[in-house]
Design a protein that fits this description.
- The protein is α/β, with parallel strands linked by helices and 309 residues long.
- The chain folds into three domains: 80 residues, Orthogonal Bundle (Arc Repressor Mutant, subunit A); 110 residues, D-Maltodextrin-Binding Protein, domain 2 (3-Layer(aba) Sandwich); 92 residues, 3-Layer(aba) Sandwich (D-Maltodextrin-Binding Protein, domain 2).
- Helix content is 40%, strand content 21%.
- The protein starts with a helix and ends in a 9-residue tail after the last helix.
């Protein structure tokens, strides 16, 4: 197994085609095919499924490519550092739709961004967050667990060699427009909410209910609005008398008097935390982002639970 073979495999995954990958690598297609075949024989694994529509990584292929990506990136950093080049810094976080995570990321960029960097904050579906951290695309993922999803999520994380570290615990709340019919109640129940539209973040048709970002989203609802963008939430809350189930941490884009957080009567507790790959050492930027997250949590006065693995 050589570094060149790893780069070739990553190129095929990127372009989804041997011919396109060969063109961008400036080598012949037969040479690339032979190199890939030799690599698969050596590791005794099929990395790609070949079809008329191109090349798609197998499950084992995605695992292999995650490790390959880490090796190639570390080699690039080593070459840059000792060839006298300015080292371009890379860092990626995948997260559910939490503004506090975005705020912490902004502080990271302000403090550690140099002349050459590529930082990415990816607000993703839950399944994609897990996949990105598993395959080393993102160093850190941010998501929540509760009694309703913990068993399945922990099983999936264990299978993917991912570790969950809690940031804070919160009781479920709903965000409502200040003129919503339920806005003046001290708390609300699911029965109270039944006649109003529920806004939820879309997880895709093929993803299971335990990937949902919202407590109780597995319930049958009369009216549901699926969104992918945080910015769209406010419009629905204000114009449809809709609600969204949340941690109750009022994010900056909802600040002001228009949107309020009302406690939900539920015995659930949401534990928001980060996931990391067990086989990946945390980088300097990873430590810096974690410090920024923890500082944000402390400023919000939220309760941090004992760490679990």
């Amino acid at each position: 197994m050589t570094l060149l073979q790893l780069k070739y495999a990553l190129a095929v995954a990127k372009y989804g085609s041997v011919s396109l990958a060969a063109r961008h690598l400036f080598i012949s297609q037969p040479s690339l095919t032979e190199s890939l075949s030799s690599l698969e024989q050596e590791i005794q694994q099929t990395l790609f499924v070949r079809s008329s529509r191109g090349m798609k990584p197998t499950d084992e292929g995605r695992n292999f490519l995650g490790y390959a990506r880490q090796v190639v990136e570390q080699m690039r950093l080593l070459e840059d550092r000792y060839n006298g080049k300015n080292v371009k810094r890379y860092f990626s976080v995948s997260t559910q739709h939490y503004t506090f995570a975005a705020s912490a990321f902004v502080e990271l960029v302000k403090a550690h961004g140099g002349d050459d960097y590529e930082f990415s904050l990816l607000e993703e579906r839950t399944g994609k967050i897990i996949e990105n951290v598993k395959n080393f695309k993102s160093e850190i993922g941010v998501l929540y667990m509760s009694r309703s999803n913990e068993v399945m999520l922990r099983k999936l994380l264990k299978e993917s060699r991912l570790v969950f570290s809690p940031l804070f615990m919160a009781r479920p709340h709903v965000f409502l427009y200040r003129k919503h019919p339920l806005a003046k109640q001290a708390s609300v129940t699911f029965a109270d909410l039944e006649v109003f539209p529920c806004v939820t973040f879309d997880q895709g048709e093929e993803n299971p209910s335990y990937f949902a970002e919202e407590i109780g989203s597995e319930r049958q609802m009369r009216q549901r609005v699926l969104v992918t963008d945080r910015a769209a939430v406010v419009n629905f809350l204000m114009k449809l008398d809709a609600y969204i189930l949340t941690t109750g941490v009022l994010p900056s884009f909802l600040h002001g008097r228009d949107i309020i957080a009302v406690p939900l009567e539920s015995d659930e507790v949401m534990t928001v935390g980060v996931i990391r790959h067990a086989d990946r050492r945390m980088t300097e930027l990873g430590h810096a982002f974690m410090a920024s997250l923890e500082e944000t949590v402390e400023k919000m006065g939220l309760t941090k639970p004992k760490e679990q693995v």
